[in-house]
């Protein structure tokens, strides 16, 4: 081999090595024992529900939902007693006087119904907002996972017709999310859910 061809051979090796090291995730995916796929899959529902953040949010929403249900039962019991009292008083009242009380009672029932529905909707919106915040918080974590595995896309398993189990990185993503943001309690002080 001539000196010139040896130099080109070394340059070729150097370029090949540089390209291999520059390839996204090529060394780290293999070194870290991560799957190496262009396309990864993840279960969005499981990701949220089994992460520490998601479990905290779900537990809080369920606890508030239970309080709301108990409050609703208490209100229904009060309204039932009031309705029974009104029914018993009806026989002793003038029809016009009863009509005024019955209409007032109907407005009260409607008001309680609207208030409880508004509280349920607020609770549902809080849950939706927490899920949206979760997606935003996990975006950089999932981006790093893509780089580490050499993936160019992550698809939700629910939209995939068929895939190998080795493309599913849900458990790995959960462990990284839990490590990075925990249950999100510290983030709540900064205005996130």
UniProtKB/TrEMBL annotation:
Signal peptide limits: 1-29
Pfam families in alphabetical order: OmpH
InterPro entries reported for this sequence: Chaperone_Skp, Skp_dom_sf
Gene3D superfamilies listed in its UniProt record: Skp domain (3.30.910.20)
Domain of life: Bacteria
UniProt-listed SUPFAM superfamilies: OmpH-like
TM region(s), chain numbering: none
Keyword entries, A-Z: Signal
UniProt xrefs under SMART domains: OmpH
Protein's recorded name: OmpH family outer membrane protein
Organism of derivation: Ruegeria marisflavi
Source species taxonomy: Bacteria, Pseudomonadati, Pseudomonadota, Alphaproteobacteria, Rhodobacterales
């Amino acid at each position: 081999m001539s000196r010139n061809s040896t130099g080109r051979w070394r340059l070729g090796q150097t370029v090949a090595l540089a390209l291999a090291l520059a390839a996204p995730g090529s060394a780290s995916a293999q070194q870290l024992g991560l799957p190496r796929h262009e396309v990864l899959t993840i279960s969005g529902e499981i990701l949220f529900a089994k992460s520490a953040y998601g479990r905290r949010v779900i537990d809080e929403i369920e606890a508030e939902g239970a309080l709301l249900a108990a409050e609703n039962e208490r209100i229904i019991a009060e309204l039932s007693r009031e309705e029974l009292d009104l029914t018993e008083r009806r026989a002793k009242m003038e029809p016009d006087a009863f009509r005024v009380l019955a209409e007032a009672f109907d407005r009260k029932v409607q008001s309680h119904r609207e208030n409880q529905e508004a509280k349920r909707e607020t609770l549902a919106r809080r849950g939706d907002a927490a899920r949206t915040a979760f997606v935003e918080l996990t975006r950089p974590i999932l981006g790093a996972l893509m780089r580490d595995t050499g993936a160019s896309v992550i698809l939700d398993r629910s939209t995939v017709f068929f895939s190998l189990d080795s493309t599913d990185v849900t458990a790995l993503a959960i462990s990284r999310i839990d490590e990075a943001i925990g249950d999100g309690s510290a983030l709540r002080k900064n205005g996130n859910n």
